[in-house]
Amino acid sequence: MKKMLFLFFILGSTIYQSKAQVKESYKAQIAYKIVETSPRCKQLTKGLYERVVKNGGTSYGVMLESSPNPKTDPSQEYSKTYNFNLHESYTDRMPVIARFVFDPKKQQLYEDDVVNAKLVAIPFDKKLLLLFNQK
């Protein structure tokens, strides 16, 4: 019985914590989809999970670093664009593999070419712009 109560306590607190987490705005959710479904992001992530785990990591992910709405989006700072990173996750570090920028005014997705210090326009599913521009 004690084990059962403990299990319910853990389950209940987990549900409460997930509801307490900040959820990004509708536009940020669509910006995530624009990045994650782009051919370039798919190319970079194909087989990535297996490689990361083989190297002792746990996973990989796309993270919103800055946005036009840092108070409503779980981002660290304000930016006129939605800025994302693609990173690997290890217990002691999160190396960034690539950076992506979605510019809501130009309605364009870019990959940040850090070496040459420029943004390179990349293809993405333009149908997602209809969703992005709804609200």
Please provide a written account of the structure.
The protein is of the alpha+beta class. The chain has five helices and six strands. A six-stranded mixed beta sheet has the order 2-1-3-4-5-6. A hairpin with a 4-residue loop joins strand 5 and strand 6. The radius of gyration is 18 Å and the shape is globular.
Beta-strand residue fraction: 25-35%
Main β-sheet: number of strands, strand sense, barrel status? 6 strands, mixed
Order of helices and strands: HHHHEEEEEEH
Rg of Cα set:
18 Å
Q: Helix segment count?
A: 5
End-to-end distance: 50 Å
Give the fraction of residues assigned to helices.
25-40%
β-strand number: 6
Mean pLDDT level: 86
Based on CA inertia axes, which overall geometry fits?
globular
SSE blueprint and pairings:
Layout lengths: L1 H19 L5 H11 L2 H7 L2 H7 L4 E9 L9 E2 L3 E8 L6 E8 L4 E6 L4 E5 L4 H6 L3
Parallel strand pairs: 1-2
Antiparallel strand pairs: 1-3, 3-4, 4-5, 5-6
Keywords:
135 residues, alpha+beta, six-stranded mixed sheet, 5 helices, disordered N terminus
Task: Describe what is shown at a glance.
The chain has 135 residues and is an alpha+beta fold. It is built from five helices and six strands.
